[in-house]
Amino acid sequence: MSDKKILFEIRDLCKSFKLSKKRTLKAVNNVSFDIYEGEKFGVVGESGCGKSTLGRVILQLYEASSGKVIYHGPAAERLNKSREEGIDLCSLSKREMREVRKDIQMIFQDPAASLDPRETVGDAISEALRLNTRLDAKARRETTENLLQTVGLKAEHYNSYPNSLSGGQKQRVGIARAIAVDPSFIVLDEAVSALDVSVKAQILKLLNQISENRDLTYFFITHDLGVAKHFCDRIMVLYLGNVCELAPAKELFKNRLHPYTESLLDAVPRLGLAGRNREREELEGEVPSPIDPPKGCPFHTRCKKCMEICKNEKPAYKEVSEGHFVACHLYDDMNNNKI
Q1: pLDDT computed for residue 194 by the predictor
Q2: Structure pTM?
Q3: Those residues with Cβ within 8 angstroms of residue 31's Cβ, 6 or more apart along the chain or in another chain
Q4: pLDDT of residue 108
Q5: Which helix (H) or strand (E) holds 220?
Q6: How many CA atoms lie within 13 A of 318 on its CB side?
Q7: Which residues fall within 8 angstroms of residue 271, CB to CB, at 6 or more apart?
Q8: How confident is the model at residue 1, as a pLDDT?
């Protein structure tokens, strides 16, 4: 990806939630990575590992506890900064963030919950145009009808209410609303997990087409590694708010390095004889509480390759081959270039 331009630089990002005077939940812990323009960047991990929180912090729906989210998109120029220099979203005022909102959008897991049942499909989409453009009512109507057709719906759906639509149709409305203001970046938070298999395939195909036609960058949050493998360009593995591994999708599935990644991939169902030649690493136990995370490597309490150093010292996040990063003491003797 070295020939691609960087859209986001995430540096030492942390997000904690204060539960009481003595209890703090650490949802995202010192995470660093880059997102390139035009790529489909996947984030995988078990429930509660911090995937959704990370996506919301990048969009500044949650305020970061510390760290930087440096954005190199069009909004930088509108805020009198160069795109090369970028802008740290964590340091922007509410007024400045409103300017950035035109560039960054989100598609949610539950399409029904993200739509107001009292609002028509047309109103749900055109409201984004009303707030972010200077189009008059007639132009907003025409643009909305074109967007409906772009996502595979009919112009007649403009006056429909969400309760008259199927789950797939509701998600298409969510996609139309997200792309209405012509963003450069979209966070998809488990956007296809609630859909039937056939509908899921249709929505993924639609997202691919929109990405190609509009030069979009996706931050694709999912627990489905099969979907991530075929949809994403690169995949990052999170565990307890920490990055375990990051690599191009094909490389990750071909040459997984972290024991947690290995366990996740071994849990993916396989048909026939595929994958039977290698012994599977079953993942046992539960994810520790993020309120009281273990000392040392976050994964050591469930890792079958755990060493004494893993119990006391958190492993460095290092690049062990081009574009392949891992945080594991098994690779301490390899190249130690931190991102």
Answers
A1: 79
A2: 0.92
A3: 10, 12, 13, 14, 54, 67, 238, 241, 242, 243
A4: 86
A5: strand 217-221
A6: 15
A7: none
A8: 55
Q: Which residues of 173-184 are buried (b: 16+ CB within 10 A; e: fewer)?
A: bbbbbbbbbebb
Residues with Cβ within 8 Å of 44's Cβ and at least 6 positions away in sequence, in order, are 51, 222, 223, 225, 228, 235, 236, 237, 238, 264
Edge-to-edge strand ranges of the sheet holding 324-327: 104-107, 185-189, 217-221, 40-44, 234-239, 242-248, 324-327, 317-321
Quickly tell me which residue has 């081009």 as its tokens: 322
Helix (H, G, I), strand (E, B) or coil at 110: coil
Are the CB atoms for 138 and 158 separated by under 8 Å?
no
Looking at residue 333, its pLDDT comes to: 78
HEC string of 51-93 equals HHHHHHHHCCCCCCCEEEEEECCCHHHHCCCCCCCCEEHHHCC
Phi, psi of 185 (to 5 degrees): -145, 135
Those residues of the chain that have pLDDT short of 70 are 1-2, 269-282, 334-339
Beta-bridge mates of residue 123: none
Q: Helices in the chain by DSSP H: which ranges? A: 51-58, 75-78, 94-100, 121-132, 137-150, 167-179, 197-214, 225-231, 249-254, 259-266
- For residue 30, the surrounding DSSP H or E stretch is strand 24-36
Residues paired with residue 146 on neighbouring β-strands, in sequence order = none
Report the distance separating Cα 168 and Cα 174, nearest Å: 10
CB-CB contact of 249 with 261 (8 Å): no
Under 8 Å between Cβ of 255 and 235: no
C-alpha span between 14 and 30 (Å, rounded) = 5
Is 295 in a helix, a strand, or coil? Answer: coil
DSSP string, 221-236: E-S-HHHHHHH-SEEE
For residue 40, what are the β-bridge partners? 218
The two tokens of residue 12 are 């030492």
For residue 3, what are its two tokens? 């020939």
For the chain, first and last CA: distance in Å?
14
